[in-house]
Specification:
Elements lengths: L3 H4 L1 H9 L3 H9 L3 H8 L4 H6 L6 H14 L18 H9 L8
């Protein structure tokens, strides 16, 4: 599955060039705009950024904080969390805040 940065390369290149490097890094890690919005605490912001709108400084700060929280040590193993189909929206939001990308399989 392609990342947001791969899906909308022109928009995310412009965002990174404008100095929003943490948001651009998040876009390279996320595959769905809703997941990125939930991680940042916004509603439909990533969708607007995919269309070429510029984010604000607050979004960049939140992205930097999210990246700092989710940074794993280089020697750690990856943890995969498997949830049953139909997991509650609250559980999905919690996993997103913890840095997990929740995808329907």
């Amino acid at each position: 599955m392609k990342s947001l940065a791969e899906q909308h390369p022109e928009a995310w290149a412009a965002i990174e060039k404008a100095g929003f490097t943490s948001l651009a890094e998040m876009a390279r890690r996320m595959t769905a705009p809703g997941t990125m919005d939930a991680a940042l605490g916004y509603a439909s912001a990533a969708h607007k950024w995919n269309k070429g709108r510029m984010p604000g400084a607050g979004a960049e700060r939140r992205a930097a904080e999210w990246l700092a929280r989710t940074k794993a040590p280089a020697d750690s193993d990856m943890l995969i969390v498997v949830c049953p189909e139909g997991v509650s929206p609250k559980a999905r939001r919690l996993l997103t805040v913890l840095g997990c990308e929740v995808e329907a399989l």
